[in-house]
Amino acid sequence: MSLPAAPPSQVLSQPSDGIGNSTSSTSSTSNRPRSSGSRGESPSPRLRGPSGSSSSITSSSVTSSSGSSRNSDSRNNRAHSNGGSIKGVGAAAAVAGVSGSNGSRPPVSAVNQDVAHRFTNSGGLYALFLLLHHELCGVHPSKMASSLLTLLNMVLDASPSCKDEVRKVGGLGLLTALMGSLAKSDRVTDIFQLRVRICCSLQYVLEGNQANKLLAREHGLLDPLVTNLKHATSPDASQVSVLDDAEQVTVSTLDLLATTVDDSRGNQAALIAAGGLPLLHDLLMKPNISPTVLLAVVRVFELMVHGCEPAKLAMLGTPALPHLVMLCNNAPASPLAQRVVALCCRLVSVHAQGKAKVLASGVLPLLLKMLHTSPYGAHTSAASQGLYAVTLGDVDLQNEVAAQVRLTS
């Protein structure tokens, strides 16, 4: 059965309570049985037609009644066969080249901006999220979901104005529900890296868009992200992730957290209420932590300390900052050292006792070492900014720094 494209006026509303009746738009999928492991219990979006009438597509209507259980291959074949009749999907997918992609952000040139606009204006985003809804109600993650998310990322990268359109068609709620279903303890075997791709999609949608950040918080986005952090900090973290790359999932989660809390007091408070701050601290202090993960954690803290008192105390009232300074002394020209200096600058500027505690962490010798590490580059500029921040208004400290600079030059 061909799935017609929805006009731009058709939208997916916020996820409902999952109670609704099947309609003609889902008649081709209403005779499939529900498996005990189905993600059908997740919230379901609602479709609204141009006439104003609404009909619910629920997981029960998609997966109930008799028949043989579907598998991932049959879903892929069915979605691909329907995709050819969706206006805009075929052309954009051909340009995007969704097969064989990975979870990283694609280059801007991967999708022509004009094609992305035509894809959106012809109802392509609506159709894409409708197909993703079927994946949400499925039994297992599939390659089709991975391809759809990669296509979404390419369209968002080529046309940032599509962020608002994603919100209008209910895409934020669907992506959050899909992330929540994958974050459950019995769904951590994510062989298609869907969590990484969803994090990438949400980064595109939330970046610089306060309305989307607010709606994402209302949909409960922070809960599955905190669950991912719990998996990363658990003692048997290596056993939790079986087939996917645990480090890549953790870094993607931290990058999305950084985007979510950036310049958003509400999201910062929600993250603390969800118990995310102790998990971030534990991840920061974890032995043998990957440099990539450590850099991502420091970036989250850097954005959190601005206007968030508990985050300031987590840095200044614990061994976290001296621990970071000690790590940076071994690599003064590293990106981590630059990020730690930026964090120290924020702590000095936003906390009354920040300067004294930052200096007590041993950051001054680190700044001098960075300043004299050649070849000069970004770390030299970061060290200069750090020295300016910690010596501002303190003549004695300025003279001490000047004397040490003369001795080492």
UniProtKB/TrEMBL annotation:
Gene3D superfamilies: Leucine-rich Repeat Variant (1.25.10.10). InterPro entries: ARM-like, ARM-type_fold. Residues 1-86 are annotated as: Disordered. Residues 10-20 have a biased composition (Polar residues). Residues 21-71 have a biased composition (Low complexity). This is Uncharacterized protein. It comes from Dunaliella salina.
